[in-house]
Amino acid sequence: MRRLTSGLIAAALLASPAAAQDLLNALFSDHAVIQRDRPLPVFGTARPGEAVTVAFAGKTATATAGPDGAWRLDLPATPAGGPYDLTATTPSKTQTVRDVLAGDVWLCSGQSNMEMQVQASGDAWNQINNGAPNDTIRMATIEKADGRAPKAAFAKPPVWKPTTKETVGSFSATCFYFARELQKTRTVPLGLVHASWGGSGIEAWMSPAALRKVGGYDEAIDILNLSITDPVAASRRWGETIKAWWTPKHPGEAAVAPWLGGGTGTGAWTAAPRGLGIWERWGVPALAEFNGVVWFKTEVVLTAAQARQAATLSVGQVDEMDTTYLNGVGVGATSGAWLDRSYPLAAGALKAGRNTIVVGVYDTYANGGMYGDPSKRALVLADGSRLPLEAWTYRIEPRVGADPPRAPWDTLAGVSTLYNGMLAPMGPYAYSGLAWYQGETNVGRDQTYAPLLTAFIAERRAGMAPDIPVVVAQLASYGAFATTPGASGSASLREAQRRAVAADARAGLAVTTDIGDPFDIHPANKQEVGRRLALAARRIAGEAVTTGPAPDSARRAGDTVVVTFDQIGGTLVSRGSDGVIGFELCDAANACRWADARIDGATVVLAVPTGAPAAKVRFAWADSPTFNLFDSAGLPAVPFEMDVRP
Predict the structure, then answer these.
(1) Fewer CB within 10 Å, N or C, the chain?
(2) Rounded Cα gap, residues 139 and 176, in angstroms
(3) What's the Cα-to-Cα distance from 96 to each of 34, 76, 190, 629, rounded to whole Å?
């Protein structure tokens, strides 16, 4: 057998004393599902230099642990079946995991719509209480964790759970229903590794190397790396990044920059309520429904003896992100409303006399502000003396231009944080496919999403079979209806998803615009999402199924534009009308108008009024689009934007 030691997997398997941990990576545990019909990588940690022998399904292989304790070996392919025992043995230790099945393993990842559990989805009571137990669909949910560097181990060892009445409620609904549907046509065990986190951007799930290949992330990655070796310098540098965001928005206002604490007129500060708290509850009309940046300021006066000391600056909990300055210098930045902020200050950071502390608070959703126990806000000097920070003022940052950037170590919107904490510990655990349900957080950044998704898919395939299938759930309807044609952040993100998938012969798209909820970003019908993802997987596998009408071309034909569709199940149909609703014709500058349209076989014909521009055609282009084009199998047409060819 081929032997691989530490070089290949050192980033995922840093050594610890073998006596204090298992020999096998934590995904190899009781009730696990391993990938069938392919050479099986088995890996873990042992004492440096120890021989590790693994036995599974009548096969054995041996590897030697490297200087860091990491080891890996590849067992021959095993057909679907089981249960088996998997045993790893060294001269000092033996570990056996039991009830292991060989089948197809899928990684299910993304943000909150992938995270949404069966018990929170539609028809939950019936599915939990009346669904049949299934020992051959098993799920391991990865504990939420972030990191600034790849982590050696999971925050908590994953537990493989067979499908029972007691377990299924906590399963990812989309992932489970996808597997249940898939198993109707392939009778093999299915193992589901679920790693998702609500609110996460795709950048958080990608390694620094993958992001550098996409381009545009070098500075963020460099600051992230600096935060590992010199967090004070990284905080200072990040503070300068926020200054660089603010300054072009406020030409000629450098003297009243908020981090300096001065200002009059538009830069004036207003006394904040004692104790601060959620700003929507202050009774200030401008903050009643405000999402954006609010600057908070306080001051503390120190003697020369106090100023010479190191200290800790504690500002309590912030909803949801802060960038904190001391005397105009960045000293810390944290994301996460549940976290208390405490920033170390080296000796020399403070000065005798008046010291100005400014906290820039950025809130993107619902409540915002500095909240929690007011007594936690204090400057604590090295000698133990504590100076409360009680009198605060604030000023509201105008909502002009782009929102502020997020710190590179931001748990959900940073770079590589969830890759480091949740994906890296998986090492080369083999899986047969990826199901991805993410994108809501990247709305507004659609220009970069297609290359990011392409690079993310490539990275997930690395080390696996190079052609593993990838199925992507397109964003569902959520938000405003369109009464006139116009821009839509959600529609633009859907188009980026469509283009990335269309360019990949081994990827498939599940359209969900007809089963979304304009008033809830988490639509309940996850059974249908799972069914459509399974259709996409079956189509990639070569089965004779269709996944819903998808545009193939748009061409000018006299006073019409003809859009040709493929992937039609049966015939095209327009629900509720003889005409087709949801099409727009646009000029080159994206000035668009509704288009009258009708079905003609596998095409939709759009009427072009005399003299009207028709450079582009759009369909279902809105946050919550209104449309009626389906196929007779009941699947909706894919939202799209496409240039019109002569």
Answers:
(1) C
(2) 8
(3) 15, 19, 21, 55
CA 315 to chain centre: 28
Residue 301: burial class (beta carbons within 10 Å; 0-12, 13-18, 19+): exposed
Contacts of 193 (CB under 8 A, 6+ apart): 27, 105, 106, 107, 108, 139, 140, 142, 158, 426, 429, 431
pLDDT at 454: 98
Residue from 458, 451, 531 nearest 497 by CA: 451
Gap between the Cα atoms of 591 and 614, Å rounded:
10
* Cα 287 from Cα 390, distance rounded (Å): 21
Among 396, 399, 392, 362, which residue's Cα sits nearest to residue 285? Answer: 396
Average predicted confidence (pLDDT) for the chain: 94
The tokens of 643 are what? 């240039």
Q: Quick one: which of 173, 45, 53, 162 has its CA closest to 99?
A: 162
How many Å apart are CA 147 and CA 11, to the nearest integer?
13
Q: Is the dihedral of CA 4, 10, 12, 16 positive or negative?
A: positive
The secondary element (H helix, E strand) that includes residue 79 is: none
Q: What ranges make up the beta strands (E) of 418-468?
A: 433-437
- Assess whether pLDDT exceeds 90 at residue 472: yes
**H/E run at residue 95:** strand 93-110
Mean pLDDT to the nearest integer, 252-272: 84
Helices (DSSP H) in 2-109: which residue ranges? 6-9
Q: What is the pTM of this model?
A: 0.92
Picking from 6-10, 322-326, 441-445, which range would have the lowest pLDDT averaged per residue? Answer: 6-10
Q: Considering only CA atoms, which of 491, 21, 26, 407 is closest in space to residue 231? A: 407
To the nearest 10°, the Cα dihedral for 437, 443, 446, 452?
-40
Distance of alpha carbon 37 from alpha carbon 461, whole angstroms: 17
pLDDT digits (tens, 9 = 90+) for 287-310: 999 999 999 999 999 999 999 999
* CA–CA dist 629, 606 (Å, integer): 13
- 635 φ, ψ (degrees, to nearest 5): -95, 140
What DSSP state is assigned to residue 517?
B
What whole-number distance in Å separates Cα of residue 36 and Cα of residue 103? 5
Q: Residue 639: is the preceding peptide bond cis (ω within 30°)?
A: no
Is the CB of residue 422 less than 8 Å from the CB of residue 27?
A: no
pLDDT grade for 13, boundaries at 50, 70 and 90: very low
| Mean pLDDT, residues 489-508 taken together | 98
| pLDDT tens sequence across 88-106 | 999 999 999 999 999 999 9
Site of tokens 């070796």:
229
> Closest Cα to residue 476, out of 505, 424, 513?
513
| pLDDT band, residue 465 (cuts 50/70/90) | confident
Each residue's pLDDT tens digit, 149-184: 999 999 999 999 999 999 999 999 999 999 999 999
Whether residue 11 is predicted with pLDDT greater than 70 in this model: the reply is no
